[in-house]
Design a protein that fits this description.
With about 150 residues, this protein is mostly helical. Helices cover about 45% and strands about 10% of the residues. The protein has a two-stranded antiparallel sheet. A hairpin with a 2-residue loop joins strand 1 and strand 2.
Length: about 150
């Protein structure tokens, strides 16, 4: 029996981004899910240049995460992204990704930096939405918001 599929949509600067995960892509995912997710990642990667030109990644550097209350793996990845000024390399922190996402980002031994950045921006948005990450000095998205 497969796990239920969770679909999350994000509207960011005119982009419709949808992540599709089947319970963190555990051992029960189907080959069809693999193909669909791989196609999704390819399409997401193709949007990278336009997203960069339109300033999508500036959100990661402008909004400071509350490091005490936010997901430590996401904080580590965002800090790395900012230290490298968005130029990520193979050694980038990947603990914020599922095992399946890690395998796609490092597909056939090649690090897909553009896909990494797109997934990081999506995970950032999801974490704020599901309250596993909080914006420092924010009433609406801070740790004490309702």
């Amino acid at each position: 029996m497969t796990e239920p599929t969770i679909v999350t949509k994000h509207f960011t600067k005119g982009y419709l981004m949808t992540t599709k995960q089947s319970n963190q892509y555990g051992d029960t995912h189907q080959p069809c899910d693999d193909i669909e997710y791989a196609l999704f990642c390819h399409a997401l990667e193709a949007q990278y240049q336009q997203a960069k030109e339109e300033g999508l990644f500036e959100v990661l550097s402008v909004l400071e995460l509350d490091t005490e209350h936010s997901d430590k793996h996401l904080v580590q990845a965002v800090d790395y992204f900012n230290e490298k000024e968005g130029v990520v390399e193979k050694g980038a922190p990947m603990d914020f990704l599922t095992e399946y996402e890690k395998s796609i980002v490092n597909q056939e031994g090649t690090f897909r930096a553009e896909l990494y950045c797109m997934l990081l921006s999506i995970k950032f948005s999801e974490a704020i939405e599901n309250k596993s990450a909080f914006i420092q000095h924010s009433f609406k998205y801070g740790v004490y918001s309702e």
